[in-house]
Amino acid sequence: MTGRDGIGCIRQRLRHWRKRRQRPKAAAGVASERRHAARKARLRKQRRFGQRLERSAERMLRRQGLRTLARNYERRTGELDLVMLDGDTLVFVEVRFRGVGAWTSGVGSIDPRKRQRIARTAELYRRDHPEHRLLNVRFDVVSGSKPDCRVRWDWIRNAL
């Protein structure tokens, strides 16, 4: 009789233990889903902010006389924010934004690996657009900062 009670007791303990094990998983799953959703929302917000900044930088460059050829040109090697024409010079523009209190400038935030990706993608752009192959090439950086209410743009020619 005691043996049978012992088995029933073990089964009951196993059921209880399994239920306890499942609770934290469900709670952790909900928490991780919330974190994931919050991260996705934050990334969407950053992407929209970046797109607005790129359009603002493009308007500033057009006022300076450059003509837009392409926006967000993407290839496997990387992305070019803006491809513009300045007279007979093909200009590849990298747009950067540094918030208040940033340690580096917009140009300083472009590491050698990023420079290499920009150069490779620019070469692919020239291959894809034979009409631009004979033009001179320049790599510019437009760096935005926001010391007060308005974005202040610094345009650095031949930055890379």
Please describe the structure with a list of short key phrases separated by commas or semicolons.
single chain; 160 residues; alpha+beta; Trna Endonuclease, Chain: A, domain 1; five-stranded mixed sheet; 5 strands; 49% helix
What would you note in describing this structure?
It is a single chain. This protein has 160 residues and is of the alpha+beta class. It has a single domain (42-156), classed as Trna Endonuclease, Chain: A, domain 1, CATH 3.40.1350.10. The chain has two helices and five strands, in the order αβββαββ. A five-stranded mixed β-sheet has the order 1-2-3-4-5. Strand 2 and strand 3 form a beta hairpin. The chain starts with a helix and ends with a strand.
The CATH topology is given as: Trna Endonuclease, Chain: A, domain 1
Number of helices: 2
Taking all Cα atoms into account, the compactness measure Rg is 27 Å
- The residue-averaged pLDDT reads 83
Topology as H/E string? HEEEHEE
Count of distinct strands? 5
Low-confidence stretches: none
The CA-CA distance between the termini, in Å, is 85 Å
CATH class descriptor: Alpha Beta
| Class computed from helices, strands and strand pairing | alpha+beta
Shape: elongated
What's the short version?
The protein is α+β, with helices and mostly antiparallel strands. 49% of the residues lie in helices and 27% in strands.
List the helices and strands and how they pair.
Elements: H1 2-63, E1 67-75, E2 78-86, E3 89-98, H2 112-128, E4 136-145, E5 152-156
